């Protein structure tokens, strides 16, 4: 029986506290300096007027000359710097250079404050998504062991069972994020904004807080300047009621499978025989089919719809490969932790070898899908596809390089050799780096579509990740300590005990 020690609990609770402080600070800092769109518009115009009035005629003539000759950068850089000083914000050189009018300056300023308000929500979403999907992928890993009649893993199946225990917790938070998005508390899923999907608006309602939108032309109805025909064309699938319903179906199906596999496993301990093992085989087979569909559709819903104009037929596979290899890393880390603590006597270097092969194989698979998706989009050069990579390669290229190093070069260089795969310390080191690398991968999936170029990897993001790490670890280890660590009547325990490769 695994003992969840007080020292480990204290570490987990300390990480949770760091996470709560980080996310609390994120929401506090976002609300402290937030301006409404109307306030930003008036302030930028006022700053522009004051700036123009303080210039002497020579400066004004020079600005007119530059404007006439297409050189607007210097003119608007002064305005941007004045806005930065007055509103305590910051703009990139690309944003300053892209401004062609005062309306562009207003739009860029609005975008900055929208991104700042969105930052804590995006951090919460990225960390919750990462650990929720690891929990799901751990359940997939468990189901695969049953449907493949795998013998080598029979001694450690309690670990993926415990990993899947996080599903209800992450699922509830995911539903909270989705519902609050539908209530417009945040803009993680910007397609939820009804102004994007209606072609017309009632003119009299435009100056109110809640404009009335419609798709029917009539008296007093004018064209909606915010209408997006691409997003409007996807409303049959991307609409709030159906979106929430799908999320509930996903989470209920996943949690039910996790509950049944754990329940039947404990029944097997008590009664023996193959009755419960056969039931677990059946549940696993049904779940794998369900997961094959829902892992892709959940990726479309929760990740790909953030960049609503973009789509990729590879994305479901790509995102699942990232989460699956992360789950393999988590299972390996927990297994090695238990070995260092003196548990799992039947687990030996041959099991470590298999973990090493999992990590290496699926790291290569993830890299293949990453490159295949990128190459096809680059080669086709279709505007609605290349925009996905454009912002990432321009503003997130450092993180992309780090992710490729950690997720591909790291396992390729450190555990490709047979002997390296059999070393607990080396597999542990590689698994930890893979886990970090794939969180960065998820970060790059989420942030460009939610905060754009105004991204940070600071206290809010790292603190939230650490908080979730503590939360996830606490749930998993508590689940692990509540049942016997070793299964008693699994029909392949002897094969696992004598596993040799």
Task: Summarize the structure in words.
This protein has 501 residues and is an all-alpha fold. It folds into two domains: 6-33 and 110-188 and 233-497, no CATH class; 198-231, no CATH class. Helix content is 71%, strand content 2%. It is built from 19 helices and three strands. It has helices spanning 6-32, 37-54, 57-68, 73-87, 93-98, 102-147, 158-163, 167-182, 229-232, 240-271, 275-302, 315-340, 349-380, 383-395, 397-414, 418-421, 424-450, 459-481, 493-497, and strands at 200-202, 213-214, 221-223. Strands 2-1-3 form a three-stranded antiparallel beta sheet, with no helix packed on it. Helix 6 runs antiparallel to helix 17. The longest helix has 46 residues, at 102-147. The two termini are 28 Å apart.
Q: Strands of the biggest beta sheet: in what spatial order?
A: 2-1-3
Beta fraction: under 5%
Report mean pLDDT, rounded to a whole number: 91
The shape is elongated
Helix content: over 70%
DSSP strand count: 3
SS class: mainly alpha
**Roughly how many Å is the radius of gyration?**
26 Å
Give the N-to-C terminal Cα separation. Answer: 28 Å
- Overall tally of structural domains: 2
Question: In terms of per-residue confidence, which ranges show pLDDT below 50 for 5 or more consecutive residues?
Answer: 60-73
- Number of DSSP helices? 19
